[in-house]
Design the sequence.
């Protein structure tokens, strides 16, 4: 449980480094993350390395008692490398190379670039692998940022063909899996296969699905190459990569298997502006972010690996359609909340606002004139709160099943523009959280017996094995429409949905419809929306809408939402199921969120007005570790669990 | 008057074919449409044909007593053909080839592809031209689908230059026709002329107009090449092509001259979602489709040729922004309505929902698990209704004049974003239909004397000959703004609008304005919108708006709407004119539509609630052939005309 | 103070030219602008010139007593030139050549095209430079129209590298100025630098800023080459170029230094449709245009040079999303208003509506059938009004500072989608005008001592020298947020905003936020919106919003709006400051605008209903030169100042 900061010594005169390091230490930070965009300074010309400045920077930090997380600089290859190898560039979906001049200008499938990626990693790992300060390594930076996972370059095409050859061996197997007899799309050879873009109308969804999987695999492979080199030279270092919020173009569960800690970059305000939330919601949470944004990602990435936050928004940013100031207290809140969700560390981005180039309007802990900004004092306060706590361990009894593969299937064939897997999963997450529940978001392959309730908002492919383990687990199940509807190629499952889940949910989905955004019908405490199944079933529906359409089926403790529930409808069903299982729920005021570890319970107020803790919550002895019964905007309360 | 179905035996194991054929027959179907996407199976490698499977499929259908409509497979050329001839691809308006991976990946102007199109047609026609089951042939599939009529390929450029050379002979004639002295656009040679795209601002509208005409001609030629080959080998077969709804990129009147029956593909739900209707309208008719969608297209295509429906939506589809289930009864309603409008046959698309590839979420008569879906039972019911009726012949006394050439002129120079020819024409059609009228939609070249009232919602070029025939016909005329405003090159007509129509409408349009969407002024029973002319005229306007602007001029029985009327305003003017001509009109409840042939009258309820037939409608003896005075949602009533 | 007209004799038979000229003269016009699109007629083949027609056209106009403004035809190079030199084309930001078929198909950086531009200019200047009728010359037409200033061609890339080499000499100086150590963007040579497009995410803002400056310089150079040739052969002629409204891609202050008169093309209706105004506002002023559109541009371009209007909208146009007819009287109003703002001349575009090609739906003074259209009579009326007046000289005591360089900085890094420099500047202008004030819009380099109040709505870079001159001037200052926030490279200014303005406004902007469109908080008579600074300051804010956020600081007579004021909030602050300075203000009814010269005062009613002049306005002796106390829609009143 430690605090750090993102630092770019190369942006500042060397004279500042020592005082910077000392101020970091004084602030309560224990590490600095450095180096990840500095290739042009480390290797100004091909093969000529300049480590002097980095030696000195690392040494200065070390001398101040800070540890260092060192990043490989592969997100920003220098111009001379690009000019020497134009086959290293990614191509966009429109068929154009994506050139030099910003960052991430490379293709994961370029063997040329892979070679240089390994080379610079090797050089760095050799030099700093045994340095006592360098205890952590980060590969590259934000794989996929600026839509860079899926490349349509000639190199990607060749690599995709190889990937397919490896997967299917026989072209007829591919033809069969993809259903290529449809529209005469049959191939005679893997070398005939193009990337799925610039077709007349949409390409075969199975074709696109395999391309998405291939693209994800290329990212993982790229990371693994670097991680293996680092491991060789720094066998005891913590290896990480910093992933993003709201990003699904590669499989983070798989990446989680190849890091020690998965870190993520948390920018609650910018992402709210980008979201599909209503204008009212965006206005209410303008300077706080959505109450579930950070929690959702903490719990999602905790399901991938040990996790931390390596870029915490410290003030206004520069890249959203509008960039408000965080409400006073929010940097503190976000920081503490991360640890409440089990983060191993948290670090604001960045130490000092840099007055030039693309990110000059992105706040730091310090202003460009070296004075403290909002984040500075709030990180100090957060350190004070954290000092009273030990590390948390999660003990959630409710799980959401999620897989990237399912996300891609629904992305490729949403069957209705309003169907967004992320919106649905995070809406179900928010429904559970609004009851005060702790929630794990996990891959279907995890051990399920620890859970009392398992939610499946949107899991299109779902194997017999998973269905069997669900049954064995004894958990109560709430499954949404589309669950178990697809086979591994994204095709309709034989026997129809819910496929293997019929073991628990004895019904057959005969067909489905999607509707425009907005409520589709009233049911229970809310409405259904987006998607509705028609079902053949011996049982009567437990809930129907005003037109008599089936919305919910109950089979013992298992539930099937034949029509996707909105938050209110789902919440009441979940509340009842929790009550049956003896899981305590709460009626939280809007904007209040709870989180419990084994030792403590936290409350966070995201709303713009003060709220009271509902009766039944709070320390039995009335003693708060921090805060109290009334939480101001951006307020935190914490107390020991009995 | 027969029912069929679209069938893809190649998607299913051969063991199923016989039972499929028998079930079709039992359902009351008399033909199956097959083969149109199967090139890769018919010719797996260059010149190696595999007819065994098709022989067997045709034979199996024949054995069950079904006729076969066989499609040429040119909408889906195989990958090996594309790889051998990259000059066969169309290019998009952005200047990029449109590649393999879906369908329609060819350019109508590619001589290479034309050769292969003739070759595969020849091979098929030779083999099946004399087969007793194969009584109908379809060329290709949905010319123009996915915006494929207008290609910007090098082949198209060469062909366009030849087309222009043939049309104008002399480059100075072209310069004069297009007005190329404007902006120094003069050419010295046909070989200097580019396709009208990627210019700095919009190209010369006459240039674009000729390109649109050329593109249409290429489609017709492509069809004619196939049709001639088929005719040679199957002289008695019915030749068709399946056109689409809401599609205007080539001249369907011209195509109609080269088919025996023009078929169309009717998907009422998806097209409502795509339309510019209000959200309220889309919500009300979500599961029924717009009440005039099918009728409009039936009457439009009946104006091109004998017609039928070859793809009838049988349930939810997969390609619209949202895809609802049809209200129970709608498949029956759509099917019967087609025959009420004079269709020669109707066939749902498709027999069985296919669980793989692009259209896996598109319903069939059967579910993927072979159980009957909605369409199955409703087609059976429709067959029952139809058994009581004979073929209808149209006897409309009201006509709408429409031409594709005029559509293109207005598309190229709308003069206001809200001016959409289709919206205007179909709105006038709907106004007439809401009075219970039967309407023909016809090309200006048809014999007009059979009509009492002729509507000209939007006919920009209108020759002296047409004006003369209008006068001779004795029909009352209602013309909308822009009528007769252009010459054959799309230029302003000498003497100004309404040009030749001045013979009937003695006025001069001095200038015109367009306004933002929404009402422009109140007049009569409604409002004007979109477009308004200023007029010099000896007569006073018959209607003005609240600002005193002229909206309507009356000259005897002829009307000129100087400002485009909305539905309410037009309806009342039309009602009065019908009364004067002794044409009976009705006050129909919203969503109710009528249709009469010589022998019967039908009522169709598109609304979501039950409606009563208005007094004055219904059988004089009280005996309905089907239905009754109260029509439930999706209900049909029919009775014999006295 | 003279009236002219845009005329294209080449569009009409020679027989019409003489009567055209005579009608122009009779209408009160004194000159015709001709020739600017006629290259293909002047030089039908390479090197073969045909001057006969132009000789005759000029002669005919001359004979009728008209002067001629002759345009160089370089906006429309002929096809043969394009075919001979494909390196003359501009490329769009997507990386594609912008081809022949409309106009402006050339790249300002093409040396080849520059050579031909000089050649055709030379040929024309030699032939007509001494012609007694040709008293005025226009270079090219509407530089930048259709987004043609910024070209991404190979020629532009080479020229940009040269421009950078000249500016920075040393590549390290460029690296330092741009901050290229960020994201490893360092260059070793000017030849490594690409144009700032098709990068993975946004390029370095300093890179883009220099590209925008370079692109502007290329336009000025292109103009200067032509102007110098013309000057040589026609030393006494007036040289002009016609600029556009709402256009900022090159520096009009700089162009103003190289013309005798800067002319502009005024289309009030089309530009309102294109603007970001509310739908209500667009509806209210549908047929009049925004009340400040024309005034803003008159005053902006008067700040660049002597100015005139060379294209005045005379009726509906063809190019906006909808194209209404001007309210009767508006052509007269626009024409008189131009002179009230100091225009040297005004000319409607065009003489006669041309019935072919791209602009066939654009009105002229005459209809295509030669009859007078709206503009004809109204220009005649305007001539009558103008005959009573002498030339005006401006005497504004309020100035707005504006620079194109600042515009580009904010365009490149708006930091919030709602931040549009033009909207802010023109909103501040409108606030002042709604008080009845005359306003100059000037570059910060002008002499400021003549002004009592100086407004700085958005001037990001602001030098010490300007701040010093502001102080010396004694003017009261109202500065908006972002003033003085950037250095000359677009980077954050050392010491933070307001940088040099701290001399007058002793505060420090510590950080800023942007919010979604709409009010951000209530303050004074209105609200703040779009942008808000947080400020360190010894003084208390003079205004705060309901959340206690500082909105306005007052320092003596100087004001700093830490949060951008809306029109109401700014107006009241400005009104108070004017009162303190003894500048009279008025409470104008909505849509009424005033303008005073040294000799007269004018009132213009843009509203759709009649308005009364407020008490205190109008002639002291009750005698109006035109109009009276009640102004009908489109009405004008004018009276002598005492
Ligand atoms: Zn792995
Ligand atoms: Zn024909
Ligand atoms: Zn200059």
Sequence:
């Amino acid at each position: 449980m430690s605090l750090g900061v993102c630092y770019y010594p190369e942006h500042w005169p060397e004279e500042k480094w020592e005082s910077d390091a000392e101020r970091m230490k004084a602030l309560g930070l224990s590490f600095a993350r450095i180096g990840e965009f500095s290739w042009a300074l480390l290797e100004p010309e091909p093969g000529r390395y300049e480590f002097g400045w980095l030696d000195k920077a690392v040494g200065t930090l070390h001398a101040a008692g800070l540890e260092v997380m060192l990043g490989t600089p592969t997100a920003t290859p220098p111009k001379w490398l690009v000019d020497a190898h134009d086959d290293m560039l990614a191509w966009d979906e429109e068929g154009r190379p994506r050139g030099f001049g910003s960052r991430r200008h490379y293709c994961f499938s370029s063997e040329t670039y892979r070679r240089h990626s390994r080379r610079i990693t090797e050089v760095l790992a050799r030099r700093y692998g045994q340095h006592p300060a360098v205890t952590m390594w980060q590969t590259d930076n934000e794989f996929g940022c600026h839509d860079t996972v899926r490349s349509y370059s000639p190199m990607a095409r060749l690599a995709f063909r190889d990937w397919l050859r490896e997967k299917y061996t026989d072209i007829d197997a591919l033809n069969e899996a993809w259903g290529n007899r449809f529209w005469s799309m049959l191939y005679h050879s893997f070398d005939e296969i193009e990337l799925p873009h610039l077709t007349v109308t949409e390409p075969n969804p199975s074709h696109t699905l395999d391309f998405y999987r291939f693209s994800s695999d290329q990212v993982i492979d790229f990371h693994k190459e670097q991680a293996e080199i680092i491991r060789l030279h720094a066998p005891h270092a913590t290896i990480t990569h910093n992933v993003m919020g709201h990003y699904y173009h590669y499989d983070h569960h798989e990446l989680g298997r190849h890091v020690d800690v998965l870190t993520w970059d948390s920018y609650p305000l910018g992402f709210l502006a980008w979201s599909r939330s209503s204008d009212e919601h965006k206005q209410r949470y303008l300077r706080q972010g959505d109450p579930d944004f950070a929690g959702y990602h903490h719990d999602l990435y905790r399901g991938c690996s040990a996790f931390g936050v390596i870029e915490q928004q410290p003030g206004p940013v520069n890249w959203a359609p509008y960039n408000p100031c965080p409400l006073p207290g929010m940097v503190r809140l976000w920081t503490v909340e991360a640890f409440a969700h089990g983060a191993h560390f948290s670090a604001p981005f960045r130490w000092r606002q840099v007055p030039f180039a693309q990110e000059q309007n992105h706040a730091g802990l310090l202003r460009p004139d070296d004075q403290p900004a909002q984040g500075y004092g709030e990180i100090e306060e957060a350190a004070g709160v954290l000092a009273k706590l030990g590390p948390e361990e999660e003990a959630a009894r409710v799980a959401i099943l999620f897989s990237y593969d399912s996300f891609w299937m629904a992305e490729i064939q949403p069957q209705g523009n309003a169907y967004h897997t992320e919106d649905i999963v995070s809406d179900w997450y928010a429904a559970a959280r609004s009851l005060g529940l702790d929630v794990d978001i996990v891959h279907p392959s995890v051990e399920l017996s620890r859970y009392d309730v398992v939610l499946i908002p949107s899991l299109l492919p779902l194997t017999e094995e998973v269905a069997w383990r669900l049954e064995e687990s004894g958990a109560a199940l709430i499954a949404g429409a589309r669950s178990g509807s697809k086979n591994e190629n994204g095709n309709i499952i034989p026997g129809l949905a819910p496929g293997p889940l019929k073991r628990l949910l004895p019904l057959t989905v005969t067909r489905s419809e999607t509707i425009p955004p907005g409520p589709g019908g009233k049911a229970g405490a809310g409405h259904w929306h987006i998607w509705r199944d028609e079902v053949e079933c011996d049982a009567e529906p437990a809930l129907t809408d005003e037109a008599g359409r089936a919305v919910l089926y109950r089979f013992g403790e298992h539930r099937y939402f034949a029509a996707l529930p909105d938050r209110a409808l789902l919440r009441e069903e979940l509340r009842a199921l929790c009550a049956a299982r003896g899981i305590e729920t709460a009626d939280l005021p809007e904007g209040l969120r709870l989180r419990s570890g084994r030792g403590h319970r936290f409350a966070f107020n995201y709303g713009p007005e003060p709220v009271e803790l509902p009766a039944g919550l709070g320390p039995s002895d009335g003693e708060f570790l921090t805060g109290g019964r009334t939480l101001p905007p951006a307020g935190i309360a914490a107390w020991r669990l009995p």
